[in-house]
User: Fold this.
Amino acid sequence: FYIGIKPEPDFPVVAKIIGPRGENMKTIAERTGALLRLRGRGSGFKEGPRRIESSDPLMLCVSVSRGMAAYKEAVHLVQALIEEIHDDYRAFCK
Assistant:
């Protein structure tokens, strides 16, 4: 899922995705068995042998091994989280 919000100092998009003490990511993972990986610009994840952050747009990657129902639930939860963050961002930009 592309997040669609560029990281800015005054709007901590990565922190909002992760949630306080990792709560947002943990909740989705525990409910669905999903593996969630934040990647791209601003994620802080260093990739490859050169250990550099990807120049791709910020994204949340989702994989689930529990079957299609668990995957669909994970997708629904991630979409809801991203929509909530976009609502917060629109309010921030006003």
